[in-house]
Design goal:
Number of helices: 9
Distance between the termini: 39 Å
CATH topology: Cytidine Deaminase, domain 2
CATH superfamily: Cytidine Deaminase, domain 2
CATH class: Alpha Beta
Strand order of the largest sheet: 2-1-3-4-5
Radius of gyration: 18 Å
Largest sheet: 5 strands, mixed
Shape: globular
CATH architecture: 3-Layer(aba) Sandwich
Length: about 280
């Protein structure tokens, strides 16, 4: 089975943040205008971290076309993967073509031999993947997953609580010591797994003391990590501060996108999604 090379934390940070800004944000900006959510994703080459595929949420067409699912479908529909061929269209061009969700021009599911193994790639999600997207990642074979915003961010910053709600209500079977599962009460670092400090518990536990994570971030199918966790692996304290500021800057690109989505929702911009 293909194993991607090991990259330094700084190489990963540089590639992940650049891909979000250059390839994902323009697609998302176009998609929001049609009622789609702010979630985007990309597949990067495991060899050199070049972006291969990018997409954004396209719930205008289907409630199942979350950013990650849309990206996975595009990845398996592509026939060629040179990094130079990936060009994020301008928002105006995407809207004009009706393909703000990054549908692309590729025929469905060709058997192109140029496609790299998902196992040899890096999967990037702008927001921590929901249960639908976690399953899609497992079934499609991506082993390394990174995300910028945590579940708590999605709920508290973007006012979209359903990732947490569905995981709690559908998948988190109550144990004997916690028969009820109230809403999670955390702000900020909701991205770390249990065992990574007090802040790592926030966003993953219910208010009644249930310390079970909402899902296993390290499992037999993939490992999911927040982009912020990479900063802790940078040795130089001054360089860590530089990357913390860069993460904050890229996160800031979503301030306006989130407000535009909420404004469109208030104005009645429609989509196929039942849960807005």
């Amino acid at each position: 089975m293909d194993q991607p090379p090991t990259h330094s934390p700084t190489a990963l940070l540089r590639a992940l943040l650049s891909t979000i800004e250059t390839h994902v944000v323009p697609l998302t900006a176009a998609g929001i205008a049609g009622g789609s959510k702010v979630f985007g994703a990309a597949v990067l080459s495991g060899a050199d971290l070049a972006p291969l595929t990018a997409a954004t949420n396209d719930e205008r067409r289907s409630p199942l076309l979350h950013g990650e699912v849309n990206c996975i479908q595009r990845f398996f529909a592509q026939e060629r993967f040179p990094a130079a061929e990936l060009r994020a269209p301008s928002p105006a061009a995407a809207l004009a073509s009706g393909k703000g969700g990054g549908e692309g021009e590729n025929p469905p599911y060709p058997l192109g031999s140029a496609r790299p193994s998902p196992r040899a790639c890096v999967f990037l999600a702008t927001h921590e993947p929901c249960c639908l997207c976690l399953s899609a990642l497992a079934w499609s074979g991506f082993a390394r997953v990174y995300y910028l915003f945590s579940y708590a961010d999605t709920r508290d910053v973007f006012a979209i609580p359903y990732d947490i709600d569905i995981l709690q209500a559908v998948f988190r079977v109550p144990c004997a010591s916690s028969p009820s599962l109230p809403a999670i009460s955390a702000i900020g670092e909701g991205s770390k797994s249990k065992g990574e400090g007090e802040e790592g518990k926030k966003g993953n536990e219910s208010e009644n003391g249930d310390e079970r994570p909402l899902y296993n971030r390290t499992n037999k199918f993939f490992t999911a990590r927040s982009v912020a966790e990479l900063v802790a692996e940078v040795d130089d304290p001054e360089e860590r501060q530089v990357w913390e500021k860069e993460i904050a800057r890229v996160r800031g690109l979503y301030d306006e996108l989130g407000e535009r989505y909420q404004r469109g929702k208030r104005e009645g911009v429609g989509s196929a999604s039942f849960w807005k």
